[in-house]
Amino acid sequence: MVGCGTAGAAAALFLARQGHAITVLERVPDPGPLGAGITLQPTGQAVLARLGLLPAILARGTRVERLWVRRLDGRTVIDLRYRDAGDLFGVGLHRGVLFAALFDAVRAEPGIALRLGVSIDGWQADGDARWLVAAGGERIGPFDLVVVAGGGATELHAQTTIPTRVRPYPWGALWFVAEDPRRVFDSEITQWVDGARYMCGMLPTGRSPGGGTEVTSLFWSIRADRVPAWRDAGLAAWKADVLRFEPRAGFVLEQIRSMDQVLFTQYRDVGMARWHERGTVFLGDAAHATSPQLGQGANLALWDAMILGECAAAFPRVDDALAAYTAARRRHLGYYQLATRGLTPFFQGDSRLLAWVRDLVFPTSRWLGPLRRRMVRTMCGIDLGIVRRPLPLPL
Fold it and tell me: What is the pLDDT of residue 1?
């Protein structure tokens, strides 16, 4: 298992619990809970329930009932409520809480050998087995199966024969996690937009990793090449802009005393013709990184891990299991990659026309029931396309 992030850790747990001997190789010598807020959708919740980790996650998250996107003039662009898809909800969660739960489970699992501070540069085939090559030349193995789960920037894309496209999105986001003990931002994700160029959002994020304080994540959309200009303008100018979008954010901004506290994340777009070749499979962002516009990254990674475990249990031969995995994931991942690539320019871009179309068309979902329910199912992570039934959630 190359990488001990969301996909790698979850896949290691599923496979180890089937009796397989697993080696997890993580490049970070001392990984810890980092990052900002994510939304754990019903799909991700179902996978964590299978792993026995959901109760602990829910105890540290915040239940989210609604996504509400508005323009600066107060007009609603999107108003999606989980109840329109049934008895479902999202969970606002610090990414570090999810990491810690999975990482601790990996360390405690008897069938998993964990090696930290090991950076993998490539692999070598030896018949049906594969050897991994670490930085410095160490050969590690042999392995019957290599699971690449090292994120969208993994060097192993260059090693595969699978046609692969990796490119950065021009846009990203500034992030800050603020203490919110009074839960000013609670039960809903709020976003404010001004055209497609400006977006400010607040995500209730549950409790901070290792602590009991309630936190909220502030995110601000920005094009990557404009970050230097943002820094040159200074904190005061940016804080004034944030308050123009979200007047309730004053207490959040008071906690920001240096630009170094604000993290910038640029997103990647990874597309692969398939997700496996002989003895190797790609999971999570290494396989299908997208813009987080639909909030599906961690949830798709968890679902990948579960399906890989199911295929490994159903097909004793590795190659058969991997072919089944790619076939099982094609519709789900295809839909979300297409939807994300199609929707992102309406919310992150410089096109006034696309923003105008968004503000004209998207509000119709409030009174068109079928359209609204489809949008909610997409938000939940269970949609498979226009003419297909929603993905069934495992019990």
Answer: 95
